[in-house]
Specification:
Blueprint (H helix, E strand, L loop, with lengths): L1 E4 L7 H4 L4 H4 L28 H4 L5 E10 L5 E7 L25 H4 L29 H7 L7 E4 L18 E8 L11 E4 L3 E2 L2 E2 L2 H39 L1
Antiparallel strand pairs: 1-4, 1-6, 2-3, 2-5, 7-8
Length: 251
């Protein structure tokens, strides 16, 4: 399961650098000037955890997927009401989780983050992001880690969750053919800057999820390189003929 955004420039220099890597490595009270204007809470003077524009603008829509009709191979349909369960762990890069992002020492995250403030646009502090899995909180919260890895292009998608078959025992190894209803808890505003957001269901393989953007970029780059190669070949051939002609004229 993925979410996508259009016309969202995470690659803007001011946006991409508004973070504190030292803080995210387990030092929640560290104050980094690079996080301005979201470095400290003006009313309490406590540092935001996490600080910076990237963290403050984290994607916070939620999704619920349910199967409402199951279609069998003979074409018949049966009404059902089956919630599709998913996990939000295992979605971050292994090189980020536990390396670039670490929690402060100690088992009590609330105590470890005492003396910090939640970002302005957040509804809850970083140590309470996942109320279903205590191991997925703090700076090790994987949706946070995914969001903090900025996208290279203004149109992008990021992993929201995985549909885990081990907690969907009524499914036969994948989503069955049928009709599904998607419920969206709309929190993330995009209309005011004339953008769009979307939800994507996709299968993954050894090479990751399906991503047309990378293929398009490769095709355009390859075509340009081929055009340049043909152009330079023609130029070299023309110059070579001119040199040979001059040599022949000299004799």
């Amino acid at each position: 399961m993925f979410y996508g955004l259009e016309k969202y420039y995470q690659n803007h220099r001011k946006y991409a650098t508004s973070r504190s890597d030292h803080q995210l490595r387990g030092n929640p009270k560290y104050q980094d000037e690079g996080c301005e204007p979201f470095r400290t809470d003006p009313s309490s003077n406590m540092p935001y955890a996490p600080c910076g524009i990237i963290a403050n603008s984290i994607f916070n829509d939620t999704f619920e997927l349910r199967m409402v009709k199951r279609r069998f191979k003979n074409g018949t349909e049966v009404d059902v009401d089956l919630k599709i369960n998913y996990t939000r762990q295992g979605i971050a890069w292994p090189s980020d989780h536990g390396d670039k992002f670490r929690n402060p020492l100690g088992d009590d995250l609330a105590y470890a983050f005492n003396g910090t403030a939640k970002p302005v646009n957040w509804g809850k502090p970083v140590y309470e992001l996942d109320d279903k899995n205590s191991n997925n909180n703090g700076f090790l919260n994987e949706p946070l880690i995914v969001w903090m890895r900025v996208a290279a292009f203004p149109t992008f998608r990021k992993v929201y969750s995985y549909i885990d078959m081990s907690i969907n025992t009524e499914l036969d190894g994948g989503l069955d053919e049928g009709t599904y209803r998607l419920k969206i808890n709309y929190n993330y505003p995009v209309l005011y800057y004339n953008s769009k957001k979307y939800f994507v269901l996709s299968t993954t393989s050894l090479f990751g999820g399906r991503n047309l953007m990378i293929g398009i970029v490769y095709l355009i780059t390859g075509s340009l390189l081929l055009l340049l190669a043909i152009t330079f070949t023609c130029i070299v051939k023309k110059d070579l003929q001119s040199v040979l002609s001059n040599l022949g004229g000299g004799h």
